[in-house]
Amino acid sequence: MSSSDLQVVVQDIPADPVKPAAAAKTGKLAGAAAASKQLLSTPKGKALAGLGLLCVLLPAIVVPAAVASQKNKQGRTQLANSNSRGINSQTGSDVDPNSFVGADGQLTTSNTTLKVPTRTLNKTKDAVAKKTFESETWTPYVKIANGQFDENCRPFYPTGFNAFELTTMAATGRKSDVDAVFKNAASMGMTSARTWAHSISEQFPFQTAPGKYDEQGLQALDYVIDSASRHGIRLILSFIDNWKYYNGVDQYVDWCGPGRTMARFEEKNGGDTDTTVRSVAQNEYETLRHALFFKEEACKALYKDHVDAITGRKNSINGLLYKNDPTILAWNLINEPRCETWMPANSWCPGAMSSWFKEMGDYVRSKDPNHLVSSGSEGFFGQGDANQGKNPQPWAAQTGQNFVDDNRHMDFAVAHAWPDNWEIPNEQQGGFLREWLASHLEAAESIGMPLLFEEFGKKLDSPDDTAAIRQLRDPVFGATYDAVQKAVEENKPLLGSLYWKWAVPGLPKGPYGVDLDDSTMGVIKTHANVMHRLVNAIPPRPGCVLPASPDKKLGAWFASAAPNAAKRGCVNAPEVSLAYYNLYGPDGTPTATAEELELSEVSMAYAKALYSGKVQVYPTRLDCCRAGGLGAYPQGCNV
Description:
CATH topology of the largest domain: TIM Barrel
Shape: globular
Distance between the termini: 7 Å
Number of strands: 15
Helix content: 25-40%
Enzyme class: hydrolase
Subcellular location: Secreted
Family: Belongs to the glycosyl hydrolase 5 (cellulase A) family.
Strand content: 5-15%
GO molecular function: mannan endo-1,4-beta-mannosidase activity
Number of helices: 17
Largest sheet: 8 strands, parallel
Number of domains: 2
Strand order of the largest sheet: 10-9-8-5-4-13-12-11
Main location: secreted
């Protein structure tokens, strides 16, 4: 059967979108929800109170029955565009032409539970005319458009995890475990991960001396990037670490700064810098020395050399230069920088750090114009900032960071949340997370920046205690994800979230690690599924899909049959994109008629169904035919 043989019979849908109905709490996730509600109800613990049901309760999207037949249009109708295709198969499958083929190809009659992101719409019917859209050139890279991540000419909401040990796993011959991490993440609907483009171990250093690189470590990174690509996971990569010595800020300063006058204090097992075990004199010396990284020209030059080496590296597996690899979502300039001002001699730090971010951001873009650039900071507010009081503790304003100034010259802003490390009591963590996220959203909006919640987690003293996982960690994850979903649904500049951290097999789980069999993974999977559906509720922009032609990379692909039909296929209906953006795009007019817009009733009906959360749309046939619940059919396409 050729897709050109497919035709459409679709009934009218009300002009006003159907509002989601509350879902019942069922199954194992009900326990997480109850714990979340308890967290939200305590004083100073009202994390994200009033933001609706926890995302962990949202089930799969379901589809309401059509309400009225097309007046005087009982015959089959093809899309007006000459290259468009139909949507429902009329070739012997068991599809009811009086219902929509919904999310994952399911035909049901219950109310939808998906709330599609809102837009600024024109409510009047005066002077309605079909909008025109300039042709756009498709790019495989994620960009920023209209204050959002943009992939395939539509919004992209990163959902995923941090896992800094992936390169170590690949370097020690455990490549199959790297593959398993990405495979499992992708199967749950995750789209993104964050890891390092620098080493943290003396065993596998990327640089053994300034400008001298070790192929074993770099080839391990090659494998991590290639594996992520094969499994459809985008990566955020950090160029350098603040905390670990090897190939981190302190080793750079030992290479590029003045000679030491005090021997280096070595942390046990190459761990993070720990000021509590060093003497006062050692702390003062190391703090002054560490700050030189952001000031010394020789250190800046060494950092730029590393940027050159990484962005210009040719992957030994797939042959792509890193700067030309769409797998990379963005670069972090540095992981959680510090230039501490508790010592008066470092009073220059905040200005120097902001200048460093601008200089290095510009430099990275000059070497790699394809990828986005971000700071990698926790997002502390500096001294004198209006939001300084929102910091977790007074010391945060003395780290040299200033969220607003540091992010002015980035492509998007980032924030991290570590309420346990920052000594926020359990009963206050919900309230802290709510205020922390709200203050960063407000600050990001003030400088026109979208925000990614790049790290968050919940510490457990007994990480394998199932009761503690359910009662302490699951509610924090659920509340955080609820805030992310709420912000996305309201079109706020919150791009998505990455939790800390995936507990990779064979390495210590640690107090923050999440195993595959932890109940928290169910909370994560449910959120990833919802975000995946939110992405697929919006078609690519018309300029990327029209006029339909063989050389167009993208389309507006829909299921053409029920999920278990004998013939499961996908069809391209690009005119639906034109209808959708005329109705619900910026300054769209949702009351416009098919006649006013000179579009088919079928395209209008499907645009309205998308906006109501009743159907899903995919940018390519490959995406539509993905199996495992990520495309239109659990088992994928067979025609």
